[in-house]
């Protein structure tokens, strides 16, 4: 067998990659809204009054008193009185035992506080939507174009630019990453937790069929350690990063005129979790489809998807994605790079995307937009559903004081929440889990 001029013995496992020629793209925004949100707090009354008196609700530091009577002895009666009171600068809504407070203007606020005083009334307070004024725009409607030749108004997709050099091709992994054990000269097919993360001489991330994807069940498979395994394969090898993922996402969106990968191709691997192991299905079920898109039922009875030769781009197991650093701290700023990857930094070559990410978990309803980073598909608003306009969920932890890294796609338990545009930005750079792996990309020298 001869591949790329090199002869391999029959049965030799080689890295199976998908050649992606360079292409150009154009984005025409049709509906942009400034990224800003009004604070939404919800009070759920859990106990009615046992005595006359005042309860106090503090909204953005301002106290509002509501008088209750001992006769208001159920949560519903108290909630009704709270809803019917007046709160300067706020609007109330809700039903039953729940009262929702929506601030009339956008901007950051102090967390709401409830005090039942001596009335016996008890309640819980939840920040349903943090108020803030972010950077950039929500893109709610747009036209996307791609071309294999340069046209007026089109730009070279950044997947084909690395360290300011233009590339004719990149090579995307056909399969989710598995481990090659250098010391044993053998591929690890069962996700044995034995990875050697030594830089240069340690083990290697791989793209082969018939292997259980690598995970951080007990081994320290952080995003940075996955990066080492990819780099250990040699010059040009990386784990998938922001621009390479975005290239696949854009091609899918244009080809199918949709963002809903599950409805157009397949749900992907879904199964009941055992809560203790890596339950991802082995790679290779879609091999006979080649570079076509579609889904198959594997020998274990699970749906396995592929898009243009990239198997399990979504579901089965989360995949770390490099070149993306999220500065949380109630801000959710996103920084992106195409080389010299590192965690928890926003210095060169990392650039501020110019828009802030959604600060609420939910189904994606808008993507963040700035002209320089119009090629990214990161959510800025999350009030959609499992079908429209995207159909994928976004997970965040915006109120924590931390840097976060990114993972893509969902794993075996995520059902309709997962998909090719499903992002999780809730993991610190030190995190490793049995449900997160990685995948390769090869970027040739320009």
Outline the secondary-structure elements.
Elements: E1 2-3, E2 6-7, E3 17-21, E4 24-47, E5 53-59, E6 62-68, H1 75-84, E7 90-93, E8 98-106, E9 113-115, E10 122-129, E11 132-147, E12 155-156, E13 161-162, E14 165-166, E15 169-173, E16 178-181, E17 186-188, E18 204-206, H2 223-231, E19 237-239, H3 242-256, H4 261-264, E20 294-297, E21 303-307, E22 310-311, E23 318-327, E24 333-336, E25 351-356, E26 362-363, E27 366-369, E28 379-381, E29 393-396, E30 403-408, E31 423-427, E32 436-437, E33 440-442
Parallel strand pairs: 23-32, 29-31
Antiparallel strand pairs: 1-2, 3-15, 4-8, 4-10, 4-11, 4-12, 5-6, 5-9, 7-8, 11-27, 13-14, 15-33, 16-17, 16-18, 19-33, 20-21, 21-22, 23-24, 23-30, 24-25, 26-29, 27-28, 30-31
Quaternary class: single chain
* Secondary structure: helix percent: under 10%
Shape annotation: elongated
For the sheet with most strands, the description reads: 8 strands, antiparallel
Instruction: Specify Rg, calculated over alpha carbons.
Output: 25 Å
Mean pLDDT score:
96
Count of extended strands: 33
Distance from N terminus to C terminus (CA atoms, Å) equals: 27 Å
Domain count, please report it.
Answer: 2
| Contiguous runs where pLDDT drops below 50 for at least 5 residues | none
What share of residues are in beta strands? 35-45%
The secondary-structure class comes to mainly beta
| Number of H- or I-type helical stretches | 4
Can I get a quick summary?
The chain has 446 residues and is mainly β. It is built from four helices and 33 strands.
